[in-house]
Every structure is written in C-alpha cells, then in structure tokens.
Amino acid sequence: QVQLVESGGGLVQAGGSLRLSCAASGRMLGIYNLGWFRQAPGKEREFVASISWSGASTYYADAMKGRFTLSRDNAKNTLYLQMNSLKPEDKAIYYCARSGGSYSGPSSRFDNLYDLWGKGTQVTVSS
After folding, report:
1. For residue 122, what is the DSSP state?
2. What is the mean pLDDT of the chain?
3. What is the mean pLDDT of residues 44-72?
4. Rounded to whole angstroms, how far apart are CA atoms 69 and 117?
5. What distance in Å separates the CA atoms of residue 52 and residue 105, rounded to the nearest whole number?
6. How far apart are CA 102 and CA 69, in angstroms?
7. Distance CA 74, CA 104 (A)
8. Partner of 47 for a Cys bridge, out of 4, 21, 60, 109, CB 3.0 to 4.6 A?
9. Cα separations (Å) of 113 from 18, 76, 85, 102, 108?
C-alpha cells in the first residue's frame, strides 16, 4: 500500500527557512502530479503548491510565490518544499498529496482532486 510521509517541519524564527520532504513508500510517484497543502488552527485547508509528474511545471498560491520552491526527485520517490522568508502566518500543518489526475496550474488548487494524503508535518514560525 502506498503511503506518503512528510518530514522536515519544526520551529523557526520569522525570516528563516525550512525544507519539507515527502517520501513515498510503495508505488513510485514518478507518474503522478503532486501537491502541498496546509491547514492552520481554526482555518480551512489551503493549497500551497503543485508540481507536474516530471517536475517541469509548478504552480504556487499567490502567498507563496517567490518564497517557496517545490521540486521532486523521482529517482528517490521524494517531493520537496523549500520554504524561505517564513512568516508567522505560515504556521500550519503541511500535507503532501498525490493528484488523482493530470491537473496542473490553477486546476490543481482543489484538494478534492487529490486521492492520497500524508499525515502532515507541523511548521511553527515565531515572531
């Protein structure tokens, strides 16, 4: 059974950086588009970024553009999210997810299009 496992979360000061990873066990991720979402306490889950199966195409939520970079290493079956210039409002649980289809760009924002989710990793940003 395929599982997604996030890691790399933690506590960082505002302006700092973290690199999240999402490793897959089981079936290779290389044929799937993937995404990151996050959920802050008391808020709805929101889209962070998505990446095509090859890594050639990425799409970011406006609040993350210029600060976050999404990449993948299909040989290692791993997805990465480099987060720079972190802000207190970035505090959330971050989830990686596998797309159930070939959705990319703005179409990839909707969490109901993802069919496999990790359990998340906590990111806390202190001011």
Report:
1. E
2. 94
3. 96
4. 20
5. 9
6. 20
7. 18
8. 109
9. 27, 24, 29, 10, 7
Residue 27 amino acid letter = R
Angle CA(97)–CA(100)–CA(104) in degrees, nearest 5? 80
E strands present in 1-120: 3-7, 10-13, 18-25, 34-39, 46-51, 58-60, 68-73, 78-83, 92-99, 114-117
> Which residue type, as a one-letter code, is found at position 36?
W
In this structure, is the dihedral angle defined by the CA atoms of residues 19, 55, 66 and 90, taken in order, positive or negative? negative
Q: How far is CA 64 from CA 33, 83, 105, in A?
A: 19, 8, 14
Share of the chain above pLDDT 70, in %: 100
